[in-house]
Amino acid sequence: SSTPSHDIANGFPAQNTSQNDANQNQSYPALDRRIEETYAARSTATNKNSLYDSYIRAIRWASDRIKNGVVCFVSNGGYIDSNTADGLRKTLADEFSTIYCFNLRGNQRTAGELSKKEGGKIFGSGSRSTVAILLLVKSTRVESRCELYYRDIGDYLSREEKLEIVGASDLKTVDWQKIDPSEAGDWVNHRNAAFDAFTPLGVKLTKGAARPMTFFGNYAYALLTSRDAWVYNYSNEAFSSNVRRMINFYNSQVDAFAAHRDARGYTGSKIDVDEVIDRDSTKISWSSSLIPKVAKGVRLRFDGKRIMVAMYRPFNKQLLYFDNDLNHRVGQFPKIYPTSDHANVGFYYVGMGSAVPFSVLATDAIPDLHTTGAGSGGQYFPRYVYEKVDVEDQQLDLLSDGSGDEYTRVDNITDEILSDYRKTYGSSVSKDDIFYYVYGLLHSSGYRSDFAADLKKMLPRIPKVKDFKGFADAGRELVTLHVGYEAVEPYPLEETVTAAGGLPEKTLYRVQQMVFVKGKGAAKDRTRIVFNSHVTLSGIPEEAYRYTLGAKSAIEWIMERYQVKTDKASGIVNDPNDWSDDPRYILDLLKRIVTVSLESVKIIDALPALDEL
Q1: How high is the mean pLDDT of the chain?
Q2: Are 349 and 442 in contact (CB under 8 A)?
Q3: Element (H, E) at 124
């Protein structure tokens, strides 16, 4: 790609000529220091990396140079309502006398009805994020406080309709809504003050900070591999072959780099690894964490003990090669699922800063970061964690069970929360009860609606309610149902089999891609699903589609994930028919998820009222 021109004096790119120019890895020390001192310093978010995106750098750069005048950007509008940008919003309100923000929507990192509401993408295929017009006015006049004007363009509008509205408007004719930012820096969707008084699920402590009372001692960002096609698969044979092939190619790149360095007489890190590595996507998927390992001479080897089962999407398990080198970010999972022999259970949660709707799902397997779809960015709250122990010391311990296990299981529900809840609800309350209580309460429609703005910006905080037992019992039922989904009774859907002609079951029940039966006009008949060219399922209750995870119903997740897919970049085929020896596994799984959906809806509808103590 071509090189961008730069403002040499200020070190900020004047223009970008390709997608790779001035990427987010480019360093601007003075500019980033200003962001650190302002936007980041005033942000309550734990991960503030997104504050160093190019468009936010541009806002900071321009803000520092305008003394009396106007700054205007048409850019990603993620700053409007994201938790990470709370410091940016506070700072803008302090630095400018008047702010106009025109939200043009168009966020296509969502799905389903939410995606339809977002409407057309302002820049067509060139944009998937929210786009907004931001007009910042700085005046030398002394103002009591910044005046903030906001306009949301509205739901379900096409790109053409949006552009027509913008084209026919000027600053005076736009129907602005004057808004007052909250103390937390919210412009829209103000948080509920009561939420702060509740106990957080968990916290990530800064160094030296005192730990407040939390429900969980530890939690983790869900797994990010950055090479899903290579390290996930339904087929054990294909899976092992893919991983071995990638490892062998990677090691060849380590050898090539070493040879290139030695031939040129380089020492240390003088040579750029990009000069050497082969970026052929049919051989490997590189990432920012894997490339530096080539320069360091780190060699990899295939280890069958690293094969685990993961929850890739809702009720969709696949094999995973769980490895610190071949997974971009494993986080805390080596402590949560150290080996395939160490059982655990927890729930995947998505909501804070996510492009998809709030949801939780209990699972006994490692969850992928995007379990509920692209833009999820979920986190996992495990029931237990495992700590490594010194085997020799354990063998000397007279109280040891003699198993020689190098890990010991630690309860992840904190002692502080147990003590607190026993004071409130009685001495019989257990840590299991508290775990199930949290899971049940997070399904409460009242909780989700009352604190919708908070849940979009913060980790869940849990109130104490009058009917603790009611929520705990419901949570226990939901966990049992969601973790044990493969064992529930299949819903009695009608199977219509045509042209079977004595086909073997493996062929008769082989799935390629499930679709709904066509209804009238463009409508779909969601009561019937074409399983394959031989089998159609009928009698799916509409009620079952009320159970959703992210932007899709559980049934639609099964339809989407259990199809034969070929990854465009690598050419790797992932065939769900290879997952089980039972030829009816996928068919019966779909029926089981209908049961799971109906039972979940029934339990959730019967949850107690959210009567706080």
Answers
A1: 89
A2: yes
A3: none
Q: CA 181 to CA 322: how far, in whole Å?
A: 44
pLDDT of residue 451: 94
Mind listing the pLDDT tens digit for each residue in 394-449?
554 444 444 457 899 999 999 999 999 999 999 999 999 999 999 999 999 999 99
pLDDT tens digits along 330-349: 999 999 999 999 999 999 99
Quick one: which H or E segment has residue 122?
none
Question: Quick one: tokens of 241?
Answer: 């072959």
Helix, strand, coil proportions of the chain in percent (round to 5)? 35, 20, 45
| Contacts for 197 with CB less than 8 Å, ≥ 6 apart | 463
Per residue in 538-592, pLDDT (tens digit) is: 999 999 999 999 989 999 999 999 999 999 999 999 999 999 999 999 999 999 9
Burial class (CB in 10 A: 0-12, 13-18, 19+), 406: middle
Q: How far apart are CA 149 and CA 54, in angstroms?
A: 24
E strands in 142-254: 147-152, 177-179, 199-200, 220-221, 232-233
Q: How many residues does the chain have?
A: 613
Q: Report yes or no: 516 and 528 within 8 Å, Cβ to Cβ.
A: yes
Sequence-distant (≥ 6) Cβ neighbours of residue 40 within 8 angstroms:
48, 51, 87
Distance CA 387, CA 380 (A): 17
CA pair distance 95, 137, nearest whole angstrom: 9
pTM equals 0.85
**C-beta separation of 471 from 603 below 8 A:** no
What is the greatest pairwise CA distance in the chain?
A: 86
Name, in order, each residue with C-beta under 8 angstroms of 326's C-beta and a sequence gap of 6 or more.
225, 227, 230, 231, 243, 246, 247, 290, 300
Alpha carbon 228 to chain centroid, angstroms = 14
Those residues with Cβ within 8 angstroms of residue 563's Cβ, 6 or more apart along the chain or in another chain: 511, 512, 513, 514, 576
**57 and 28 in contact (C-beta within 8 Å)?**
yes
Number of other CB atoms surrounding residue 526 within 10 Å: 17
In 3D space, the residue among 437, 465, 442 whose CA is nearest the CA of residue 452 turns out to be 442
Tokens of 338: 């150290």
DSSP, collapsed to helix, strand or coil, labels residue 293 as: helix
Q: Which of 551, 562, 549 is nearest to 591 (CA)?
A: 562
Q: 413-448 burial string, b = 16+ CB within 10 Å, else e?
A: bbeebbebbeeebeeebebebbbbbbbbbbbbeebb
CB-based contacts of 143, cutoff 8 Å, min separation 6 = 97
Distance from C-alpha of 328 to C-alpha of 323, rounded to nearest angstrom: 9
